[in-house]
Design a protein that fits this description.
It contains nine helices and six strands, in the order βααβαβαββααβααα. It has 240 residues and is α+β, with helices and mostly antiparallel strands.
Length: 240
């Protein structure tokens, strides 16, 4: 998991002021654009949002849908992408396709790239399944799996060199090849995504994705992120 990365591509500036403007327009007869020079500061807007929208779970999350943030997520296993796109989360994805970028497998097969740069395996350690059954993933098992992954890349290379198309040949490679993707979320859908994927029974790797998103959330909308961490994070309350 040490290779996983989440970086911000773009984000709405002054997002808490944007939420404040949307909230304020709901109950004022003024045209709020004309009042923008007198808006409270970004930090004060965060405090007002927590007090008027979020505290007490009033459920008025519409104003939170206006600010947007775009993450570049890298080196995650394909299963994370599969899980991230499950359920209606209100986000947009663009995902690396191995129909076009499968040359990485050939580089591994030729010894010019490390197999773990392209394929993800969990670290050695103790795990449990969803029924609570515990097991140990040993160094020996992991090494055997690495060797199997390497052989799969060699099969990919051989098939490709025989003229097989990339989308056909990739059916031979391990399911959890590493994959990069872009994900864009509004502030409400970011909280919803974290609700879904940072709960204790979520896949470990997607929990790590959420862990890496959180510092960006805190830097972007500090007051709202702090309220979220205190009141919702990890509690699986779902769908604000």
């Amino acid at each position: 998991m040490d290779k996983f990365r989440v970086e911000v591509i773009a984000q709405t500036p002054n997002p808490q002021q944007v939420v404040y403007a949307a909230m304020h327009q709901d109950y004022t007869d003024a045209f709020v654009y004309d009042e923008r020079d007198s808006f409270p500061s970004e930090s004060n807007c965060g405090e007002i949002i927590v007090k008027r929208l979020l505290a007490g779970e009033r459920g008025h999350y519409g104003p939170l849908e206006h600010p947007q943030i775009v993450f570049n997520c890298g080196y995650f296993p394909h299963s994370v992408m599969q899980q991230a796109r499950t359920h209606r989360v209100g986000v947009s994805f663009d995902v690396q396709s191995f129909r076009y970028t499968g040359n990485q497998f050939i580089l591994v097969a030729e010894g010019r790239k490390n197999v773990e740069d392209v394929v993800y395996l969990r670290p050695v350690g103790y795990y449990s399944d969803r029924q609570g059954k515990k097991y140990y993933y040993s160094p020996e098992q992991r090494q055997e799996d690495l060797e199997w992954c390497l052989e799969a890349t060699k099969r990919y290379k051989a098939d490709f060199e025989r003229g097989m198309s990339e989308e056909h040949a990739r059916g031979k490679v391990p399911f959890d090849y590493r994959q990069h993707f872009i994900i864009s979320l509004n502030l409400r859908s970011l909280m919803h995504f974290l609700d879904l994927r940072h709960k204790k029974d979520a896949q470990l790797e997607i929990q790590k994705l959420c862990d890496l998103m959180l510092p960006h959330f805190e830097a972007w909308t500090p007051a709202i992120a702090q309220w979220y961490k205190t009141n919702r994070l990890g509690k699986a309350r779902l769908a604000p």
